[in-house]
Amino acid sequence: MSETELPLSFVMNLAQNEAALKKFESMSKSEKANLINKTHSVHSRDEMRNLVNSLSDGTLNI
User: Fold this and answer.
1) How far apart are CA 46 and CA 28, in angstroms?
2) For residues 10-48, b (16+ Cβ closer than 10 Å) or e, as one string?
3) Is 38 in contact with 51 (CB distance < 8 Å)?
4) What is the largest CA-CA distance in the chain?
5) For 3-50, how does the pLDDT look when each residue is reduced to its tens digit (9 = 90+)?
6) Distance (Å, whole) CA 38 – CA 60
7) What are the contacts of 16-20 at 24+ separation with CB within 8 A?
8) What is the pTM of this model?
9) C-alpha of 59 from chain center
């Protein structure tokens, strides 16, 4: 998987969280790259869900 490739679990969680998807779409290229880098250190479904939820509720620090 390349550094810019989105993990499937991230995409699936985004698809289930419309607010997070809209937030992701509005992010700058560098913000998206930082977030994608964070997804590569996630090791479970719950962690990925929490990461996506933190994106939608505004608690994610990028």
Assistant:
1) 26
2) beebbeebeebbebbeeeeeeebeebbebbeebeeeeeb
3) yes
4) 28
5) 568 999 999 999 999 999 999 999 999 999 999 999 999 999 999 999
6) 11
7) 17/52, 17/53, 17/55, 17/56, 19/56, 19/57, 20/52, 20/53, 20/55, 20/56
8) 0.87
9) 12
Spell out the SS3 assignment of 23-60.
Answer: HHHHCCHHHHHHHHHHHCCCCCHHHHHHHHHHHHHCCC
What's at 5, amino acid-wise?
Answer: E
**Residues 55/13, Cβ–Cβ less than 8 Å:** no
